[in-house]
Amino acid sequence: MTQLQSLRGMVDLLPKALQRWQVVEAIARTHFQHSGFKEIRTPLMETTDLFCRGIGESTDVVGKEMYTFQDRGNRSCTLRPEGTASVVRAALQHGLISQGTQKLWYGGPMFRYERPQAGRQRQFHQIGVEWLGAASARTDVEVIALAWDLLTSLGVSDLELELNSLGSIEDRHLYRCALVAWLKQQSDQLDKDSRMRLLTNPLRILDSKDKTTRALLEEAPTLGDYLNSESRTRFSVVQRGLITLGIPFRLNPRLVRGLDYYCHTAFEITSKQLGAQATVCGGGRYDHLVSQLGGAETPAIGWALGMERLLLILEETSKANPDGRASRLITATKPDAYVVNCGERAAEPALVLARALRMQGLTVELDSSGATFSKQFKRADRCGARFALILGDKEVDRGQIQIKPLRVEGDEVIRSINAISAIVDILQNR
Ligand code: ATP
Ligand code: MG
Predict the structure, then answer these.
(1) What's the gap in Å between 394 CA and the centre of ligand 2?
(2) Which atom of ligand 1 is least distant from the CA of 310?
(3) Which structural domains are found in the chain, ordered by start?
(4) pLDDT (tens digit per residue) in 191-241
(5) CA neighbor of 133 nearest in space, from 294, 291, 259, 305
């Protein structure tokens, strides 16, 4: 029989990797909590219509990448390709927005039918924040700082924050007209995708990966020249805030989000360690999405961060600097103790001891193999435990346990097997 395989681009997360994920998730959760963001969980599947309206038909995500199918009731369903549309839908459906500003975070799998490669999968994971009702330019600074501080606190270096302002809808409209007029004159030099986008979503051409198109765009009119004075002032407040917080950034006039409800601040955080898929986090302001989905005009800003790419960066950082913070964070935690026990009579006291220590918060591996002492010691050593707790016939007779340090200097000591707090004290403090 042929071995069954997971679908292309859908990746299993095995225990060794997951231990790293959990560390990152725990740190992210703490950052969200400290900044007053509350978790929201929405279904993995939504009506297709939500994403068509919430992301836009002219985007790659909706146009080419969605997993869409009819369910048994003939409804068109889609596996979520991103989080924002679902979060806004849920906030509207449950009347959260009318209760005031909502600072929300989410995490979990997303689905896009893309060509799998390093840092690009068909099921991947994002964590992200959405701040609904955030109007001030200072909220932009706060939200960007949240992403930046989360990444830097993980010990990741060589991050680059790219920043742009898309201006107001009116600014964008003027710019789009100018850009389209200019591009039409050079349309024979554009790549095929960009020529299509000229009709559907011209701002996205700025994002083109095609070399000739990119070179051509060097000469194109830039969005910055079309911002009105209010948009310019707003953008300078964002930049000043980042400078005040000591967060370095680079202005990138080509950084765009193609849809009408995106406005003002757009940003991406990239890392050279990622190669071609360089962006680990992307976000921006979307003041018109809530109304687009049927709510009242509600200013909002958010970002999403790709977990797989973040983990890749952490691994690279850790390789480059084995003594650094990233390395410490992703190094697997080792058991505090490994219980070596030999003989029938030792088995039950060993079970009782392991349980008592676990109840005290220690990580304990119990050997239940009945193998020889020397085999059990080898395993204790291999698993990296700091101590071996040894229970043989002699110890059972005397109601004692031998505590042998495996990773630190020092002699073995003997304690009563019932003296749990004395044993804990040794395991924790030596
Ligand atoms: P890209 O240009 O790399 O396709 P994107 O603009 O489509 O990115 P967003 O929709 O802004 O990405 O998603 C935010 C983040 O989610 C990205 O910066 C990236 O880290 C991650 N991400 C997006 N698509 C994938 C994918 N297919 N596999 C893994 N991570 C992804
Ligand atoms: Mg993409």
Answers:
(1) 65
(2) 20
(3) 15-168+228-328 (3.30.930.10), 337-429 (3.40.50.800)
(4) 888 888 888 888 888 888 888 888 888 889 999 999 999 999 999 999 999
(5) 291
